[in-house]
Design brief:
Blueprint: E1 6-8, H1 11-14, H2 25-58, H3 63-73, E2 81-86, E3 89-99, E4 108-110, E5 113-119, E6 125-131, E7 134-136, E8 139-150, H4 153-164, E9 168-175, E10 178-181, E11 187-198, H5 202-207, E12 212-224, E13 227-236, E14 242-254, E15 257-269, E16 273-282, H6 284-293, E17 300-312, E18 315-316, H7 318-325, E19 328-334, H8 339-342
Bound molecules: 2-acetamido-2-deoxy-beta-D-glucopyranose (5 copies).
One 2-acetamido-2-deoxy-beta-D-glucopyranose binds near residues 216, 218, 224, 231 and 277.
Keywords: Membrane, Transmembrane, Transmembrane helix
Pfam families: DUF3712
InterPro entries: DUF3712 (IPR022185), Tag1 (IPR046368)
Amino acid sequence: MSKSDIEHSSDSEANGVTAATAPKPTLWQRFKAHMKKWWWVYLIAFGVIVLVTVLPIIYVGIPHFASKYINNYEYDTEGLEITNPRPTAFHVKQKKSLSMGGGFSGSGYLTAFNASIRTTDTNEEFAIFPVPKIDFSDGATIEFDTDLDLTCVECLSKIAVQAATDENFAILATAHPDLKLSGLPTAHLDIHKTMSMDGYNVTEFVNEQGSFNVTSLKLLDPPVDGYNFNATISVRNPTPFSVEMGHVTFNLTLRGDKLGYVDLPNLKLGSDITDTLVRGQVDKSKLVEEALLGDGDGATVTIGIHGHSCEYNGQDIPYFSAAIRAVSADAQIDLLKYASSLL
Ligand SMILES: *[C@@H]1O[C@H](CO)[C@@H](O)[C@H](O)[C@H]1NC(C)=O
Ligand SMILES: *[C@@H]1O[C@H](CO)[C@@H](O)[C@H](O)[C@H]1NC(C)=O
Ligand SMILES: *[C@@H]1O[C@H](CO)[C@@H](O)[C@H](O)[C@H]1NC(C)=O
Ligand SMILES: *[C@@H]1O[C@H](CO)[C@@H](O)[C@H](O)[C@H]1NC(C)=O
Ligand SMILES: *[C@@H]1O[C@H](CO)[C@@H](O)[C@H](O)[C@H]1NC(C)=O
C-alpha cells in the first residue's frame, strides 16, 4: 500500500469546524510535510484493520498467501492470536511495539475508530473492527484485545471459500479516524480502500511434503466411542499467528468411495508446528486391500480428504466450516510405516 491509498480530506475538512478561520498556508504546508513523514502511522492502522478482518480466512493457508499479504502491508502479525470463535464473532489479541527510528520528531495520536469492512460485489458490511487509539512518537505500541463482531456471516463465509479455492477476492475497508500531530490542526482521514487478494490452492498445500506428518498411530481394537484408531499429527501452520479452530472433521475417501472420517477434537494452530490429537474411523479392510492390490507405488495409498465441519463449544462456526468444506485434497500415505499396527 502506498500512502496515496489513504486520502486525507480536503483543506477545509482537515481543519474541522474552524474552516471559517482558514489556516495560514504555512500551517497547511507544515501539515502536509508531516503527513509525508507520518504516513506509516495510517499504514499501521490500516494493516491492523485489514489483517485482523481477513485473518480467519488466512488460516486456511497458507504460506504464499500470508507472506505475500504481509509483505504488501508491512504489518507484523507475530504474537497475533485468534481465539474463542463463535458463530458471529471471534476474539483477536495482539500487542506490538514498533520503533521507527530515523530521527523522527514530534508526537501525536490516531483516535480510536470503528473500521467497516465490506464485500466489494454487494457492498455489504460484514465486520466492524474497533481500532483503539494509537499514540506515537518515534514509534508506536499497538495493543488490542477485543471481540470482532461479524454483521454478515455469509459474506465472510463466501470470502473464506474463495480464499481456500484459489480465486481472487477483494474487500473494502472504510474508516474515518482523526490524526492529531502536535502543533497542527486535526486531520480527518477518509480511508476507503479496496484490497484485492489472491486465494490459495489448499489442495497444493496438503500435498506439499512436510505440511503434516502422522507421528504416532494406534489402532483401537475394540473401537472406543466408534473410533478405531487414534494418532497424533503435527501440522505446519503456514501463518505466523495462532488460530484456535476447535473441533474439525474431515471425511476420507478411497477411489471416490467412503473410507471413514477423522476428528481433530481440539485444533489450535500454533505459531509454527502444532501437535494435535486425531481420532478416526476407517474401513481397515479397504485400506489393506488397496495397499496390496492397488496400483500405487508399494504400499502407498491415495486417500481423499474432504473438509466436513468446524465446531467450537458444540456450535457450528460457519465461516470456518465454509473454508474447511472447500478443502478437498489427496494425501499419499505410506501404509508400510504403519504396517505393524494395521496388519
Ligand atoms: C464503535 O461502535 C460501537 C458500537 O456501535 C460504539 O459503542 C463505539 O463508541 C464506537 N467507537 C468509536 C470510536 O466510534
Ligand atoms: C489446485 O491444485 C490442484 C493440484 O495442483 C489442481 O488439480 C486444482 O485444479 C487446483 N485448483 C484450482 C481451483 O486451481
Ligand atoms: C514432517 O517430516 C519431515 C521429514 O522428517 C520434516 O522435514 C517436516 O518438517 C515435518 N513436518 C511437520 C509438520 O512436522
Ligand atoms: C490412543 O488411545 C489409547 C487408548 O485409549 C491411549 O492410550 C493413547 O494415549 C491414545 N493415543 C493418542 C495419540 O492419543
Ligand atoms: C461427510 O460425511 C457425512 C456423513 O457421512 C456426509 O453427510 C457429508 O455429506 C460428507 N461430506 C463431504 C464433504 O463429503
